[in-house]
Amino acid sequence: MPPHSSCSTARFNAKNATVCRTKGFSPNARLGKCPRQKRTATRPCPPASLLDLHLALHMKRRVNTDNQIDFLGQSWHILQLNDQHHLIIILCASSGWSPIAAPPLNNWPEILGNYTL
Prior knowledge:
Blueprint: H1 3-17, H2 27-33, H3 51-55, E1 57-62, E2 68-71, E3 74-77, E4 86-92, E5 96-100
Antiparallel strand pairs: 1-4, 2-3, 4-5
């Protein structure tokens, strides 16, 4: 066993044995109550196809009347929006950026264009 693992295990066990003074539960006890209360304790990792979406930076931008947005010091033309005055820009380091009409949930939203930096 590596020397750090016994120290880490001891620290984790000590932390999990502490009881919160306001709630009266240890971290492990609180985690065990989540399924009974119909709450999720942890979330599963998103599908690989959505990892870029979840790990990207999301920024809100205003849409000009001529369907352009100002981003990175330039004006960019986008597809027509349905009376929306704002959109979300998803900035991925590997693939540039894409404007979308609404914040993403569990699937890729409609992409209004793809741009590279």
